[in-house]
Specification:
Strand order of the largest sheet: 3-5-7-8-9-10-11-12-13-14-15-16-17
Largest sheet: 13 strands, parallel
Pfam families: LRR_6, WPP
Number of strands: 17
Main location: cytoplasm
Number of helices: 22
CATH class of one domain: Alpha Beta
Strand content: 5-15%
Distance between the termini: 101 Å
Helix content: 40-55%
Protein name: WPP domain-containing protein
Keywords: Cytoplasm, Nucleus
Structural class: alpha/beta
CATH topology of one domain: Leucine-rich repeat, LRR (right-handed beta-alpha superhelix)
Oligomer: single chain
Radius of gyration: 28 Å
InterPro entries: Leu-rich_rpt, LRR_dom_sf, RanGAP1/2, WPP_dom, WPP_sf
């Protein structure tokens, strides 16, 4: 009886989760094949795999993941296989992401010309896949095991995983052992949900472990660091003299934190990308950032959007950007620059001969700032592809300058002038320059501009025949019901080109205070009809 009881009690321990059945393995291959052949942000950038190539890759990925998980399982024969299942899933996800980023492989006479997947697998160590989760000591030891011993990893991605203090102590000696070979480090969102004291200590441990490594890429975004967090990374930041890309987005970079960044970085001569999006920098912080920009002559991509920067900070940034002659992408959206900062920026823009994207929406530029910037852009940036001046209170007064700028930019793919006050008069001026040329234009946004059917008709006819054109957004305007019918008729052969019109107001009633002060609907309608076109 005792023996039977012992046998009965022991049976649950014999249940194994590894290896998976053959049907399970086949199902995983089929699922990966479907994912690899489904259009996504990766396929738009790297290309979409054919079904045949996706099946080959899916089978290879599953075989490699199965082998890795089996090797792990054999090291712990007394386990139930649950950890092997986790490794099987994580390895499959990691390898599938590498294939997506590689894109289709070009073949010639049956031979592979290039195979980026192998190179990626050897050089990038990525923990960011899967659900966002805390990492404690045991899991850290397991996840970081591939970094122990000889390896060729030059990039580590620890984002989307929250490291506790014990996990950081596991990572510390591993990072010390590989720091001399690292070129790219992504520590974005790696302390989420941790108490401040623990988070600061974790950051200090990682910083000390990576001190002295010669990085070209560093991402510390989404860590709510503030000044204390920036200084916790002191050991790492003060030794970086070869940085080419630095990301400090959504980090609570206040005035003091911005000053700390400027103080700790020893050199930015090689910096090409600098992103400070979504911080609370303010004017004084922007002045500190401008010191970094001023000493970054190689800068190509600068983003300082949604950072609460006003006129003084905007002027400082504009003047500092004068040193960046190689700028290709400039994003200053959603700040409180005002006209003065817009004028200051217009003085440095003529130097940007390589500029391809400029985002200046919601900067309170008004007509004077917008005109100055449009005139400056007209004489520079011959290869401009994206022009964004949304939400700047631009009226028909500045429309001629904006239209002249657009006319000179034949490589434009996207124009965003939404949430302004162009009305029919301004929209007609801009639409006329779109009628000829601009063969690469894909998208025009003129929503929320108090446009009636008269203006909508002109812009619709200007873009409908363009090859490759994708979207005209004229929502939230004052187009009559009859005008809506006519618009749909204009786009009857390509209905997807016309964006939604669910917020259109055929009665032509503006909701802002100025419209209310102008009087009732009859008076507004009279004014709109009186516009010269």
């Amino acid at each position: 009886m005792d023996s039977s009881a012992q046998t009965y009690q022991h049976r649950p321990l014999t249940i194994k989760l590894w290896p998976p059945s053959q049907s399970t393995r086949i199902m995983l291959v089929e699922r990966m094949t479907k994912n690899l052949t489904t259009p996504s942000i990766f396929s738009r950038k790297y290309g979409l795999l054919s079904k045949e190539e996706a099946e080959e890759d899916a089978k290879r990925i599953e075989d490699d993941a199965f082998a890795t998980a089996t090797q792990h399982f054999e090291k712990e024969p007394d386990g139930d296989g649950s950890s092997a299942v986790q490794i099987y899933a994580k390895e499959s996800s990691k390898l599938m992401l590498e294939v997506l980023k590689r894109g289709p492989i070009v073949k010639e006479d049956g031979e592979l010309i290039s195979d980026k997947a192998g190179a990626t697998a050897e050089t990038v160590f990525d923990l960011s896949g899967g659900r966002r989760a805390f990492i404690e000591r045991e899991e850290a030891a397991e996840l970081l095991e591939p970094l122990r011993g000889p390896n060729s990893y030059t990039k580590i991605i620890f984002s989307n995983r929250s490291f506790g203090l014990d996990a950081a102590r596991i990572a510390e000696p591993i990072l010390l052992s590989i720091k001399d070979q690292l070129k790219e480090v992504d520590l974005s969102d790696f302390i989420a949900g941790r108490p401040e004291a623990e988070a600061l200590e974790v950051m200090t441990i990682f910083s000390s472990a990576l001190e002295g490594c010669a990085l070209r890429y560093l991402n510390l975004s989404n860590n709510a660091m503030g000044e204390k967090g920036v200084r916790a990374f002191r050991s790492l930041l003060k030794t970086q003299i070869n940085l080419e890309e630095l990301y400090l987005m959504n980090d609570g970079i206040s005035e003091e934190a911005a000053k700390a960044v400027s103080e700790l970085l020893p050199s930015t001569e090689k910096l090409r990308v600098l992103h400070f999006h979504n911080n609370m920098t303010g004017d004084e912080g922007a002045i500190a950032i401008s010191e970094i920009v001023k000493h970054s002559p190689a800068l190509e991509d600068f983003r300082c959007s949604s950072t609460r920067v006003g006129s003084d900070g905007g002027v400082a940034l504009a003047e500092a950007l004068g040193a960046c002659k190689h700028l290709r992408k400039l994003d200053l959206r959603d700040n409180m620059f005002g006209v003065e900062a817009g004028l200051a920026l217009s003085k440095v823009i003529p130097a940007y001969t390589d500029l391809t994207e400029i985002y200046l929406s919601y900067l309170n530029l008004e007509d004077d700032g917008a005109e100055a910037l449009a005139n400056a852009l007209k004489e520079s940036a011959p290869s401009l592809e994206i022009l964004d001046l949304a939400g700047n209170d631009i009226t028909a007064k500045a429309a001629a300058s904006v239209a002249a700028c657009i006319s000179s930019k034949q490589f434009l793919t996207k124009i965003n002038l939404s949430e302004n006050e162009l009305k029919d008069e301004g929209v007609v001026l801009i639409s006329k320059v779109l009628e000829g040329g601009h063969g690469q234009l894909l998208e025009v946004d003129l929503s929320t501009n108090s446009i009636t059917w008269s203006g909508a008709k002109v812009v619709a006819e200007a873009v409908v025949g363009k090859p490759g054109f994708k979207l005209l957004n004229i929502n939230a305007n004052f187009i009559s019901d009859e005008g809506i019918v006519e618009l749909n008729n204009i786009f009857k052969n390509s209905p997807d080109m016309l964006g939604p019109l669910d917020e259109n107001n055929p009665e032509g009633e503006d909701s802002d205070e100025e419209a209310e002060e102008d009087g009732d609907h009859d008076e507004l309608e009279s004014k709109l009809k009186g516009l010269g076109i």
